[in-house]
Design a protein that fits this description.
The complex is a heterodimer of chains A (234) and B (126). Chain A is mainly α and 234 residues long. Chain A has eight helices and two strands, in the order ααββαααααα. In chain A, β1 and β2 form a beta hairpin. The longest helix of chain A has 33 residues. The chains are: A mainly alpha (234), B mainly alpha (126). The interface between A and B is large, with 85 and 71 residues.
Chain lengths: 234, 126
């Protein structure tokens, strides 16, 4: 969902630029709490992985494709604020070097993919964690559903921006229906990739997954017999 | 506790993520769908695709994930992907490294080094 230059008028691009700048500024302060000697390299690697993942367009129907956005994935792996920075760096490199996504549209893309993508993915993930059994096996499915939700929400926010500052005189309802339809399908792909990647890392090193740490901290308090074996074999 | 689950070392996991990113960007990307993505498709369908403008960096040597001067499309795309992965890794890894909490582990180690010269000395002697 990389918005090119030209889709949105200048005032809207300036406004999303301001929102993106404010969001990144907050993330620069808050991400400190999520990053330490072990998770900082992880954040770099997760950003690199998201960049790679975004190169893989998968077909979602007649003549259309989608690719990973990665906000929910990064949020669950390294924390929501670090994720905002990860996705913003990916978008910056894409806009400046790959001509993927506009340059004046960079603020729009950071708003949609980093702030909305990581934000919605993380909030849905945390909401699900609050109601699901406190078990490591629930981390990947919760991440997948967060990812699933993040794509159509970002598509809806784009449509809102288009309603405010779309250059072409196209009826917003038509755009919304089409955007929601396709991006719900793309969200399924986003959910599959996110669930698979988060599940793989939780299976081998749950302590390196930000969204699983709370569960591990709780597990430390369990009373265990010497015969008990770790239950994270999934 | 978590030690029991450590079937993979931290460095091995990092290496795994890096290799996965390089393979996806460098090799698998060649097989990605060439169809327009959701937004582009909707823009075309509903009639606002022609308001898109060329990126000011459309002449960049890596524009559209193709490396300038490399004729073979597979190598050109793979190379652009690998360069992008490395760029993102260095930028985000560097930023995260600057921002990171200097963990209590680091400070504790420094303090225990000062407090426990004897232990350190005997440890290094053995």
């Amino acid at each position: 969902m990389h918005v090119p230059d030209g889709f949105l008028d200048a005032p809207t691009s300036v406004a999303t630029g301001a929102v993106a700048a404010a969001g990144v500024a907050i993330a620069l302060r808050r991400a400190r709490d999520e990053l330490d000697d072990r998770t900082a390299p992880m954040a770099g690697l997760v950003a690199a992985f998201v960049f790679a993942g975004q190169m893989i367009n998968f077909p979602v129907g007649a003549g259309t494709s989608g690719h990973l956005m990665g906000g929910a994935l990064a949020a669950v792996l390294v924390g929501p604020w670090a994720a905002v920075l990860c996705i913003s760096v990916v978008l910056l490199v894409q806009a400046l070097f790959m001509a993927d996504g506009g340059v004046t549209a960079l603020g729009t893309n950071v708003t949609l993919l980093a702030l909305v993508g990581a934000g919605v993915g993380w909030l849905v993930f945390r909401g699900l964690q609050a109601v699901l059994p406190r078990h490591l096996a629930m981390v990947a499915p919760a991440a997948a559903i967060g990812a699933l939700a993040s794509v159509p929400v970002a598509a809806t926010v784009f449509t809102g921006l288009f309603a405010m500052g779309g250059v072409a005189p196209v009826e917003v309802g038509t755009v919304l229906t089409a955007m929601l339809g396709w991006h719900t399908l793309i969200g399924v792909g986003e959910a599959l990739i996110t669930g698979l990647v988060v599940g793989s890392i939780v299976a081998v090193r749950p302590d390196l997954v930000y969204g699983a740490r709370r569960l591990l901290a709780a597990r430390e308090l369990e009373i265990r017999t010497p015969a008990s074996t770790p239950e994270v074999t999934a | 506790m978590t030690g029991a689950n450590r079937r993979v070392s931290t460095r091995a996991l990092w290496a795994g993520l890096l290799v996965a990113a390089l393979l996806v960007a460098g090799v698998a990307s060649y097989y990605a769908s060439a169809h327009p993505d959701g937004l582009e498709h909707v823009a075309e369908q509903t009639g606002f695709l022609d308001t898109a403008e060329d990126s000011p960096v459309a002449d960049s040597p890596l524009a559209d994930y193709q490396t300038d001067g490399v004729d073979d499309e597979r190598i050109s795309g793979g190379l652009a992907g690998v360069i992008g992965v490395v760029l993102v890794l260095v930028l985000m890894g560097g930023l995260a490294w600057l921002l990171r909490r200097r963990g209590p582990t680091g400070r504790e180690r420094a303090e225990s080094d000062e407090a426990g010269h004897d232990a350190d000395a005997s440890a290094s002697a053995s």
